[in-house]
Design brief:
18% strand; 6-stranded parallel β-sheet; Rossmann fold; 5-stranded parallel β-sheet
Length: 259
């Protein structure tokens, strides 16, 4: 597998462990193996809508035994970043429970009066009133933070506008670019490793996207594994000037290597 010993894993969720509300090949067995062996791991997602409890329940329904404390979202990474930046700070938040809960637990006050930050995350229904308020607060001096740069998200009916698209709208109105905490910012992986207390030299990252998972993993100094069970295609791999350390059909091949 690798010239260095990998004893800790970060893995993307959609396209790696699950797809279209089903567990992907090898996912259930790999999670079970990690838990049985005491292998440190975190399941990562750029989606900031859901709390770890929500995600754990969803994965349980699909047969994946992932406790809440093994989940790391862009909302949690954003809250950890802001807690370091401005302990006990304040924020105007556009987002769902995953983001507001994470910020509350990080000691932040939610307010629309002179907040330190405007924090934009994923939401099921963007409010024009809230976006207008965010624009005015940023123009008034609030720092602009966004959980992740994804411009669209999936739905049964087709793509939906996501955080990056709404951030672009706000940027057009304020001339202020947000600081994105989630992938492809390697900070999300570094904060995950901080949570686990592990080092990049012994940590692997499994993902299904070259433009987020692999590039961020390389920049964070991780052993990168691209699986072909999600978005990536061979043609896409060839378009990029960088390469993952391994390319596998699915996480089932990791399981086989570790038997």
């Amino acid at each position: 597998m690798s010239e260095r010993a990998i004893d800790c894993w970060l893995t993307d969720m959609d396209g790696v462990l699950i797809g279209e509300d089903r567990a992907l090949p090898g996912a259930v067995e790999l999670i079970d193996q990690w838990r049985a062996n005491g292998t440190p791991f975190l399941v990562l997602t750029n989606n900031s809508i859901y709390t770890p409890r929500d995600l754990s329940a969803r994965l349980t329904r699909l047969g994946l035994d992932v406790p809440e404390d093994r989940l790391w979202t862009s909302a949690l990474a954003t809250a950890a970043f802001l807690r370091d930046q401005a302990p006990g700070g304040s924020a105007f938040v556009i987002g769902e429970a995953g983001l507001t809960t994470a910020l509350h637990e990080a000691g932040f006050v939610m307010t629309d009066i002179a907040p330190d930050f405007v924090v934009l995350g994923e939401t099921r229904s963007y409010s024009f009133e809230a976006i207008t308020r965010a624009i005015r607060l940023i123009n008034g001096g609030a720092r602009f933070i966004a959980t992740n740069p994804d411009v669209t998200g999936p739905s049964p009916e087709g793509p939906l506008p996501a955080t990056g698209a709404i951030a672009a709208l706000i940027t057009a109105a304020t001339k202020r670019e947000p600081y994105y905490v989630g992938k492809p910012n390697p900070m999300m992986f570094r904060s995950a490793m901080n949570k686990l207390g592990t080092h990049s030299e012994r940590t692997g990252m499994i993902g299904d996207r070259m433009d987020t998972d692999v590039i961020a993993g390389i920049e964070a100094g991780l052993h990168t594994v691209l699986v072909m069970s999600g978005i990536a295609t061979q043609e896409e791999i060839e378009r990029y000037p960088f390469r993952p350390r391994e390319v596998l059909n699915s996480v089932a091949e990791l399981l086989e290597e570790k038997k």
